[in-house]
């Protein structure tokens, strides 16, 4: 994590004319970043030249856009930084060759692999398995897809994502852009041999607002219908802010809707299903899972098996909107289940070793905040301010779409 005091001490001796290069990761595409004049790629670093006198303002701007500053280095007159030429505004790091080592990012003493494979030179994996994970009567189409990655250098951590590049061209005759998917397996893969990576994919399906025609998502349909042994182009991995805490005694609260369960499947497998010499989870895991119907509960058998075997350390609550009722007689959504358990969750959040993760549809955040605001207010605490402190301490993690 970037430390402003260290950065300030490094640059305070320079003149106002000096230029510093901010290396930034995690800039997200939104209205604010669209206003900038440099390219943004969530799967890569962006190098931003910053005059000395604007360093503080730039730090604040990057923070607002969701970016993380991983390094600040002075730029020499010839454009070099520490003896190496720095990419100019909007340029990305050069793609590593087969002979070079894959690029990684380090954070908090952890080796976090990032951007080992990029869109211009993706890794070509192979589909090993593609199975439905919903049951008869379920809504939609959801698949668990496993890829063979033994032929390359792709490695990843629980909580990261990979990009998938679907074949073919869009309506403008250009190659399809990659789509990001949360990884649903641990770093060792579903088979425990470090040779696979898995995704949980729901096929996007909707009615065209003008024609009424059924439209299917380009990449999700491609993945859901992928045949065994088919090749697939993979980029990444990306992400350094949604990782399972290294503390084996942590309290881990997980809130998911639909395919947002994917990273939490990886968390739970690492916690309970795998055996590790350097990691044994002794903390408390709590999953609140929102779905439409019982047949739509993804990984149902796996989850309930873990709960049965590790009930002392793993609690699970469903919020099944089309079957269960909340306290007011309406549909039971995830935020309603949280409201029912808000006091217990509030007590956990006040413990310094509690980490909260939210993954799924973007609309879920407001309901969660509302439920926790009410219980916090009972103790005279402003939830918004309390939540800001959780984020600052890297204890509140959100990945919604």
Automatic annotation (TrEMBL):
<keyword id="KW-0472">Membrane</keyword>
<keyword id="KW-0521">NADP</keyword>
<feature type="binding site">
    <location>
        <position position="399"/>
    </location>
    <ligand>
        <name>NADP(+)</name>
    </ligand>
</feature>
<dbReference type="InterPro" id="IPR039261">
    <property type="entry name" value="FNR_nucleotide-bd"/>
</dbReference>
<dbReference type="InterPro" id="IPR001709">
    <property type="entry name" value="Flavoprot_Pyr_Nucl_cyt_Rdtase"/>
</dbReference>
<dbReference type="Pfam" id="PF01383">
    <property type="entry name" value="CpcD"/>
</dbReference>
<feature type="domain" description="FAD-binding FR-type">
    <location>
        <begin position="120"/>
        <end position="244"/>
    </location>
</feature>
<dbReference type="InterPro" id="IPR015701">
    <property type="entry name" value="FNR"/>
</dbReference>
<keyword id="KW-0560">Oxidoreductase</keyword>
<feature type="binding site">
    <location>
        <begin position="360"/>
        <end position="361"/>
    </location>
    <ligand>
        <name>NADP(+)</name>
    </ligand>
</feature>
<dbReference type="InterPro" id="IPR008213">
    <property type="entry name" value="CpcD-like_dom"/>
</dbReference>
<keyword id="KW-0274">FAD</keyword>
<dbReference type="GO" id="GO:0004324">
    <property type="term" value="F:ferredoxin-NADP+ reductase activity"/>
</dbReference>
<feature type="binding site">
    <location>
        <position position="331"/>
    </location>
    <ligand>
        <name>NADP(+)</name>
    </ligand>
</feature>
<feature type="binding site">
    <location>
        <begin position="321"/>
        <end position="322"/>
    </location>
    <ligand>
        <name>NADP(+)</name>
    </ligand>
</feature>
<dbReference type="InterPro" id="IPR017938">
    <property type="entry name" value="Riboflavin_synthase-like_b-brl"/>
</dbReference>
<dbReference type="InterPro" id="IPR001433">
    <property type="entry name" value="OxRdtase_FAD/NAD-bd"/>
</dbReference>
<feature type="region of interest" description="Disordered">
    <location>
        <begin position="78"/>
        <end position="109"/>
    </location>
</feature>
<keyword id="KW-0042">Antenna complex</keyword>
<dbReference type="InterPro" id="IPR017927">
    <property type="entry name" value="FAD-bd_FR_type"/>
</dbReference>
<feature type="binding site">
    <location>
        <position position="182"/>
    </location>
    <ligand>
        <name>NADP(+)</name>
    </ligand>
</feature>
<comment type="similarity">
    <text>Belongs to the ferredoxin--NADP reductase type 1 family.</text>
</comment>
<dbReference type="InterPro" id="IPR035442">
    <property type="entry name" value="FNR_plant_Cyanobacteria"/>
</dbReference>
<feature type="domain" description="CpcD-like">
    <location>
        <begin position="17"/>
        <end position="75"/>
    </location>
</feature>
<dbReference type="Pfam" id="PF00175">
    <property type="entry name" value="NAD_binding_1"/>
</dbReference>
<keyword id="KW-0285">Flavoprotein</keyword>
<feature type="binding site">
    <location>
        <position position="259"/>
    </location>
    <ligand>
        <name>NADP(+)</name>
    </ligand>
</feature>
<keyword id="KW-0605">Phycobilisome</keyword>
<feature type="binding site">
    <location>
        <position position="202"/>
    </location>
    <ligand>
        <name>NADP(+)</name>
    </ligand>
</feature>
<keyword id="KW-0793">Thylakoid</keyword>
<dbReference type="GO" id="GO:0030089">
    <property type="term" value="C:phycobilisome"/>
</dbReference>
<protein>
    <recommendedName>
        <fullName>Ferredoxin--NADP reductase</fullName>
        <ecNumber>1.18.1.2</ecNumber>
    </recommendedName>
</protein>
<dbReference type="GO" id="GO:0031676">
    <property type="term" value="C:plasma membrane-derived thylakoid membrane"/>
</dbReference>
<feature type="compositionally biased region" description="Polar residues">
    <location>
        <begin position="88"/>
        <end position="103"/>
    </location>
</feature>
């Amino acid at each position: 994590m970037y430390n402003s005091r260290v950065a300030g001490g490094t640059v305070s001796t320079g003149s106002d004319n000096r230029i510093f290069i901010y290396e930034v990761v995690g800039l997200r595409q939104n209205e604010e970043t669209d206003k900038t004049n440099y390219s943004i790629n969530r799967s890569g670093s962006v190098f931003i030249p910053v005059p000395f006198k604007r360093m503080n303002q730039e730090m604040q701007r990057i923070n607002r856009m969701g970016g993380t500053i991983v390094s600040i280095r002075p730029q020499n007159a010839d454009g070099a930084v520490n003896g190496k030429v720095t990419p100019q505004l909007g340029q990305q790091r050069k793609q590593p060759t087969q002979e070079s080592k894959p690029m990684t990012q380090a954070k908090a003493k952890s080796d976090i692999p990032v951007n080992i494979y990029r869109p211009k030179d993706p890794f070509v994996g192979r589909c090993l398995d593609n199975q439905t994970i919903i049951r008869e009567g379920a809504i939609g189409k959801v698949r668990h897809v496993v890829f063979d990655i033994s032929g390359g250098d792709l490695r990843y951590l629980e909580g990261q994502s990979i990009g998938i590049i679907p074949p073919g061209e869009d309506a403008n005759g250009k190659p399809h852009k990659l789509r990001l998917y949360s990884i649903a397996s641990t770093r060792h893969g579903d088979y425990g041999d470090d040779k696979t990576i898995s995704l949980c994919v729901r096929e996007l399906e909707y009615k065209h607002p003008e024609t009424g025609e059924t439209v299917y998502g380009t990449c999700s349909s491609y993945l859901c219908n992928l045949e065994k042994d088919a090749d697939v182009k993979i980029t990444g991995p990306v992400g350094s802010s949604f990782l399972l805490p290294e503390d084996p005694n942590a309290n881990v609260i997980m809130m998911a809707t639909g395919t947002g369960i994917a990273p939490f499947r990886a968390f739970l497998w690492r916690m309970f299903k795998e055996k590790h010499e350097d990691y044994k989870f002794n903390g408390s895991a709590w999953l609140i899972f929102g779905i439409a119907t019982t047949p739509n509960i993804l990984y149902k058998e796996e989850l309930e098996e873990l709960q049965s075997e590790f009930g002392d350390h793993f609690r699970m609550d469903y919020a099944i909107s089309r079957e269960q009722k909340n306290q007011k007689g309406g549909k039971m959504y995830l935020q309603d289940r949280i409201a029912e358990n808000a006091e217990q969750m509030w007590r956990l959040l006040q413990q310094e070793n509690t980490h909260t993760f939210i993954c799924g549809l973007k609309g879920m955040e407001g309901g969660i905040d509302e439920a926790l605001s009410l219980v916090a207010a009972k103790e005279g605490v402003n939830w918004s301010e309390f939540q800001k402190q959780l984020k600052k301490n890297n204890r509140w993690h959100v990945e919604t779409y």
